[in-house]
Amino acid sequence: MAYVAVTGGREAIEQSLKLLKIFRESGEDIAISCIMENMGLLIDKIMSEAGFYSREYAALALKQCEGSVEEAVFLLRAYRSTLPRNYYSNVVDTSGMRLIRRISAAFKDIPGGQILGPTYDYSHRLLDFSLMDEEKKRETVGADAEESGGNESGEDIYCGRVTDLLREEGVMAEAEEDNTEPFDVTSNLLTFPAPRSARLQTFARSDAGFLGGVAYSSMRGYGAVHPTVSELRCGYLEICVPYVLDEEDEICIGEILVTEVEALVPSHTETDEEFEKMTLSGGYGLIFGRNENKAIAMSIADASLETKGDSPSQDEEFVLTHGDCLEMSGFISHLKLPHYVTFQSSLDRVRAKGGEE
Amino acid sequence: MIDAKHYNFAFLDEGSKREIRRSILKAVAIPGYQVPFGSRELPIGRGWGTGGIQITLSIIGKEDILKVIDQGNDDSVNAVNIKKLVGECTDVEVTTDSEEATIIQSRHRIPEIPMRNDQILVLQVPTPEPLRIVEPKESVTKQMHAEAEYSGMWLSLFEDLTQYGKISISSEYPVMVEDRYVMNPSPIPRYDNWKLNDSETLYLFGAGREKKIYAIPPHTKVVSMCFEDVPFRTEDFEGKHCRLCGATGVYLDELIDEATGEKVYECNDTGFCKKRRMRGKNSMQTENMQRGE
Fold first, then answer.
1. What pTM was computed for the model?
2. Residue A304: exposure state from Cβ atoms within 10 A (0-12, 13-18, ≥19)
3. Which of A8, A188, A346 shows the shortest C-beta gap to B170?
4. Which of A100-104, B121-125, B236-240 is modeled with the greatest confidence?
5. CA distance A246 to chain B (A)
6. Cα A46 from Cα B206, distance rounded (Å)
7. Over 50: is that where the pLDDT of B43 sits?
8. Chain A 309-348, CB below 8 Å of chain B: which residues?
9. What is residue A295's predicted lDDT score, i.e. its pLDDT?
10. Which sequence spans correspond to the domains of chain A?
11. What 3-state class would DSSP assign to B222?
């Protein structure tokens, strides 16, 4: 239905919502559990950009918005605003990750071994027409998985980090333990220069496409970072909160699935001797879910901000303020709102003759 | 109502609302200064008025009466949408009468009827930083404000004069607040700038995406930036009047009459226009009754 200029707003919105319902509900209904089980990577992407870990609510959001990523992120972020913050979790040491996948591009072999785990990397991207009618096939796959219990031995896998080895050898700068309270980007305005905790949080929630573009530009030459992936690991982390009655004690509130990347770039430290010492420094990425490219991109973007230059990826304020899915889509879409007051004002300026004022 | 089982009164949790109110108090204490705040995500698009909505949600109580306008219009889709959200999560009374409202949330206009000191006008702000036109970096503009270093701003106005023979800024015309901070009055037309000066009412400005709150408390000195020999000009509607209520000296919308193809004008402030017409009708009725018709 037409709406004249901006009047008739209420009725127009009501009709629009009705139409939306028709678009959303046409065809077969899809269960939340079905979305959760079949669209795992999509759910991971949404949880990471929303900064909200709940597979169930992410699936609900997807169902509610016809599968639009930005709308689903939007729904989760808005819901997040209504929740009181009762706890901050304790610091998590990711070396305690229960692994499902772990690779290193830096070394042929690593202590604990390379664990390929679930990845599309070595699959052939051919449309598999047998999936058009998959039901029968699934039963047998399910049975296989049950027999092997996920991995061959059926035991949980934990491994030390590759970078620990490099630090022992002294080729990688020892990181000082930093126990300052992290900056919380969800309840403070970023100021520049931003603390690293703020950078990493911003990147972790950043739009995957934006972060990928930043990292890609840096690798291609607009910047200087072409790192080696020291380690990419994917697995489960236990999250604990302090126990109210005893500060020393903690309560585990659950597990989250994350992807972690440590990337290495050549660097140097100043010494008293004639030459500066060459070392390796790191970029870091940690993203909710199985989200490997975003985690690698994050590690590059992080490392890139440690370098100096005029490229966009080296400009902290530029990369930290333009990558939020909600903020970019919100501001772009607001152009659909009427702007006739300001446009009338612009017309007044365009029509006014110069020199007459 | 949005179901109370899942959602708090006025949507945000109490802790968040208190935090935002503290930022508002700081903004009132330092007129024209942009106070950073932990902007929350809302069910309405960022860039669609979420700064204003967060202020409204944080200050609104059960007794308040709310008016929401967008481009001067109570019935605009965005105004309706915001009113609907606030209404559903607070159940407060809404109105189109600016004199009846205790809180007015607005995008791009200040109502024509002067507001009182028991009312608050909440303005939605897309770009809080007035210096953004001369400096893209937040870290630099922050320092410029700290040092009251506004020569770049003056220079850009002067460059305008030399280039166009007039100042080309149409809306969101920068103002100097209490001779200290240069402030962006949100994209209100220049026509509304004078209403900010020495007003009776409290103006609160919220920029959700940019995470800033600022304020003009009552009786604050607000001056539109200009030169001694080049006075500040508002939009010119001389010789034009509203075709519905006949008003002159108000901000007008320019329309094309579909039947005649001519340019016609209507009050931009629809609440004001409606009120004038109602009053006109009533006084006519009284006159008619007196005449015994």
1. 0.82
2. buried
3. A346
4. B121-125
5. 25
6. 28
7. yes
8. 317, 321, 326-327, 329-334, 337-342, 344-348
9. 97
10. 9-80, 94-122+130-176+183-331
11. strand
